[in-house]
Amino acid sequence: MSTKFSSLPVVDVGALKAAEVSSEVNAELSQNLYHVFATTGFAYLVNVPLSFDHDEIFDLSREFFTLPQDQKMRLAKKSFRPSHSNTYRGYFPTQLHLTPDNLKEGFEIGNPTANHGPHNTAKTQKINLSETNVWPDATVFSKQQRLEQMYNELQDLSSKLLSLLATSLGKDSDFVSSWLDDSLSTLRLLHYPPVPQAATQQPEQGESVRLSCTPHTDSGILTLLHQDATGGLEVLNAAGEWIPAPYISGSIVVNIGDLMARVSGSRFKATMHRVRAPPPNPNSTDPRFGRFSIPFFFEPGENCVLPVEGEEGEVVYGEWVRKKMSTFVEFQEDSGYDTGTTEEM
Ligand SMILES: O=C(O)CCC(=O)C(=O)O
Ligand SMILES: [Fe+2]
């Protein structure tokens, strides 16, 4: 459980821009990060070492979501287009038949330089966690390379943060290095379309606010989130109050996932969060409106074995994520997903 915070702390990570970081600065950053992850589990990072700003990444995301629907559906995962072979990477459309409190469309990419060789066991599963990315044709979307570069920068930043976290837990600096092998990190472009006026005025019975992402904790290690200025992200404190996490210019939000909380022996907190529905808009189908956000989920490789502090056992990441997946709205059974193992290849 997190503490009774009333706002999210801000951590300046500008020191990570330098090619060499002194051991004093590393120790200070490591302590700061330990403190926020052991209390709120969430923080804003400022002065991040990234070559792109919010305008650039959100322009790129808007360019993707304003593609004609049939172009986006060419990238749809198999559960939405059974003739397609991509099961894990690609596009998912808004699912109007599921709960109205999870109205979102998304586009997910994995490691652009991954080795998709035959050694990977993923091919025996219905969902291939390490499949190659799918992309729109370069004639309609020109930003593939830039998005791949953004992915790599977010992965680098995550790996720097992870080694600071390892130090803060009293581990060797190579404690997390194997987590980076064949990493399954996901960069997810998200668009929450505005809901029609009538729907926002009538929340469902027993519910006080209209949401577009229901309360959850992230399942993995660490999430780095770019959010636009629409607002709506809220984080639950120990007193059961939803604390707004509004957009702060130039910042990204970072939070701990369930697996990292477990690996740390519950020293780090995976804090519950949700997103309020964006303001209603009469042009509710116009994809330029609504909330845009871009979480980057740092994930280890499928075969990575993570030791768990204070417990006998270990966690194999691929098994963990498949178990968790059955609870994600995008992977619910009635959306067509089956996360189990196939009898045959
Ligand atoms: O859209 C957001 O700001 C948050 C999204 C989120 O929490 C998630 O995708 O796990
Ligand atoms: Fe989340």
Automatic annotation (TrEMBL):
Single GO MF annotation: oxidoreductase activity
Domain (Fe2OG dioxygenase): residue spans on this chain: 182-300
Name of the protein in question: Oxidoreductase
One GO term of the biological process aspect: small molecule biosynthetic process
The keyword Metal-binding appears for this protein: yes
Cleavable signal peptide: none
Family indicated by similarity: Belongs to the iron/ascorbate-dependent oxidoreductase family.
Source organism per UniProt: Bimuria novae-zelandiae CBS 107.79
